[in-house]
Design a protein that fits this description.
Length: 271
């Protein structure tokens, strides 16, 4: 029997780090278990195959979509939409969020406006976006931007305002001006958290992708899924879900690697 406060063990310690190999094996194992249970349930006839096809059937359909039906083109279109809309959102949100977090006077003016927009559901703008931009790429990109920009501004503002006041006071005491302090103290201190906020909100952008591609679209993974819905091709819909999940995971991994490359001192400290 373990004494109170004693460590639970090498694999289940509170905030005890695991090795990289263990993390990779654990991540693979949970997905293998998930698909194995799904396959077993389908093979046992416990679910309707039309509504919940077996993973083997979904994977076969996924291969067919890429090999014979040009799904790669749809994937590239979807990636382009997410990349362009997210880049535009970041171009506005990053400087605005930093300004609001660094200067309370700016926050007092803009935060009530930004906070209100965060509670408005992005899909509700679809009818008016169609009226403004027509049926081209405009409404899709606008919807993806609206879905992330106000949350991203708030996250960056909060991270900026959390920069240690001792650092700012020291810079001002040493004679640095407002803009010098912003450039040499606040910005370097908040950049790692800005990248984390971007990684978090990029995941939200991917969740809005299917909704955006419903808007009078004939291309993209979301449009493919909507076509499949009309003919009850659930295997194609699930193939699209898997593709979006893989793309989102790939983006998340890239942001994690970028964080390690740009800010190695943070990871060396936590190792």
């Amino acid at each position: 029997m373990n004494k109170p406060g004693s460590r639970a063990g090498p694999r289940l310690g509170i905030r005890q780090k695991v090795s990289r190999s263990q993390a990779i094996l654990s991540g693979i194992a949970i997905w293998v278990l998930f698909f194995a249970v799904w396959e077993a349930v389908s093979a046992a006839g416990l679910v309707n195959d039309l509504l919940v096809p077996a993973p083997s059937k979904v994977l076969a359909t996924l291969y067919q979509l890429f090999a014979e039906r040009g799904l790669l083109d749809d994937v590239l279109v979807s990636v382009g939409r997410v990349a362009i809309s997210f880049a535009l959102a970041c171009l506005v949100a990053i400087p605005l969020g930093i300004a609001m977090g660094a200067f309370p006077a700016i926050e007092a003016v803009l935060n009530p406006f930004v906070s209100a927009w965060r509670y408005l559901p992005a899909p509700s703008f679809i009818p008016i976006l169609l009226m403004w931009f027509g049926t081209g790429e405009g409404p899709k990109l606008a919807l993806l931007i609206i879905g992330v920009i106000f949350f991203l501004i708030t996250l960056i503002m909060d991270h900026t305002s959390d920069v240690r006041s001792e650092l700012i006071e020291t810079a001002l005491t040493l004679g640095a001006g407002r803009w010098t302090t912003l450039r040499t103290v606040i910005l370097p201190a908040v950049l790692p958290n800005i990248l984390v906020a971007m990684r978090q909100m990029l995941a939200v952008s991917w969740t809005y992708l299917v909704i955006a591609e419903i808007v009078a679209s004939t291309t993209g993974v979301g449009a493919m899924m909507m076509r499949a819905r009309r003919f009850l091709h659930t295997d194609e819909i699930m193939s699209g879900i898997i593709v979006i999940g893989i793309l989102g995971l790939a983006c998340d991994t890239l942001f994690r690697l970028l964080h390690r490359v740009l800010f190695p001192y943070l990871h060396a400290r936590s190792a």
